[in-house]
Design goal:
Elements lengths: L1 H9 L4 H13 L4 H8 L3 H13 L3 E4 L5 E4 L2 H34 L2 E5 L1 H13 L5 E5 L9 H8 L4 E4 L15 E5 L4 H12 L3 E3 L2 E11 L3 E8 L2 E7 L2 H16 L1 E5 L7
Amino acid sequence: MDDLIRNLTRLGLTDYEARVYAALVGMGEGTARQIHLAGGVPRPRVYDIAEGLAARGFIAIRQGSPRVYVPADPAVVIRRLSGDLDAAATAALQGLEALSLDARSKNSPIRYVQGEWGIGRHLESLLAGLSRDLAVVCLDYREIGEFARQIADVSRDHPVSILLPNGRRGIGRPLGNASLYIPRPFCPFFQEKIFERIYCGLIPVDGSAFQLDYIFIADDRACMIVYRQDGLRSAVVVTLPFITCVQREFVNRMIANADCIGGQKSSGG
């Protein structure tokens, strides 16, 4: 019995809640007096504990004199407790990651991000601080739907340029007021050594394959590079001006030599 109570409390019940529910399961149903005797819970406490369990759907109350308490199916209760525990763990992890993100944002000009939630959280932070304009390099427009709402919202207040190195693939309609660009060849060295090799192809390194998904550049002050390593997506957020300014100049140069297929032609950064 002690092990059962410990396990139930680990799942989120209090000691008295665990004893009341376990006593009812053992009896099939019972009155407050019977629960008190079987579970060792002070009788005055049985009533409020039972009311709380009933409010959560863990037991039912059959009115009468005296009242009779009936336990819900243990599988249903355990499934509910497990779900609540998983939800609490997820919320706690997200809260801790948010605190960690805020701390890293203050201390490091280059930050490594893993997980879809972390990538989304960093993008929200990046866009929230936007003061002038946003440039996006998007390797496959079909995949941009995951960020469509954020991009469309930003485009209402700031110029947004989306560069599509792989052309018109997957284009339905622009995102909000964003301008879409398809780059043209303009510099042999840049075209071969940087654009085709880094922006558009797989990069093998030490047995791993790296592939660029997106680059988000907010003003000239911050950029987020979203990429896949052997299919697993991660990101790097950079606020170091030596890197962000160079990235923005690359993108500006490509936009200046691109065909605008939606929105207004940008004048660049």
